[in-house]
Design a protein that fits this description.
Strand content: 15-25%
Distance between the termini: 45 Å
Number of domains: 1
Helix content: 25-40%
Radius of gyration: 15 Å
CATH superfamily: Alpha/Beta hydrolase fold, catalytic domain
CATH topology: Rossmann fold
Structural class: alpha/beta
Number of strands: 6
CATH class: Alpha Beta
Order of helices and strands: HEEEHHEHEHEH
């Protein structure tokens, strides 16, 4: 059985390209056909924030995807104000990462600002392509105009009143 150290050496480094051309640094570990987990870090952090998770035994059982948000770590740092002006930009980035990593129905883990990115992703793309979400130290506010509409009303970040209160 591979060790955590061996899993660390099997890192696939790639770049996802956002719709506006911003290149996002992505790292993928774990078996290609395993269930996927995509980790989204907080503000002023990088994908290195998930170092303990991705270098653990999780990488033997799951496809682990980390990336640097735009303006962070090894990702591009656009200077145009509009590159950071809307949540849709960040959810489009997450979609580009999911596509570039080639994962299907991942669990999304959002830490701090990453939780806001995940909530925005659910609003923009819906939950059909997602197996689940995990908010870690994230305060998620209901986007203006959002209405409960999905089947998982008690657990979905997009519509649960318990999450937004």
């Amino acid at each position: 059985m591979p060790t955590a150290a061996a899993a660390q050496s099997d890192v696939q480094r790639l770049h996802a390209v956002a719709p506006d051309g911003t290149r996002l640094a992505v790292q993928v570990r774990g078996p290609a056909e395993a269930p996927a987990i995509v980790f989204v870090h907080g503000i002023a952090q990088s994908q290195l924030a998930f170092g303990r998770q991705v270098s653990s035994e999780l990488a033997q059982r799951y496809r682990l995807v980390t990336y640097d948000l735009r303006g962070h770590g090894e990702s591009d740092k656009p200077t145009a104000e509009g590159a950071y002006a809307s949540g849709r930009v960040m959810s489009d980035d997450l979609q580009a990462v999911i596509k570039a990593a080639g994962v299907k129905r991942p669990v999304l883990v959002g830490w701090s600002l990453g939780g806001i990115v995940v909530a925005q992703y659910l609003r923009d793309y819906g939950e059909d392509g997602i197996a689940g979400v995990n908010f870690v130290g994230a305060r998620v506010a209901r986007p203006d105009g959002a209405r409960p509409a999905c089947r998982a009303r008690r657990t979905c970040a997009r519509c649960s009143p318990r999450i937004y209160s």
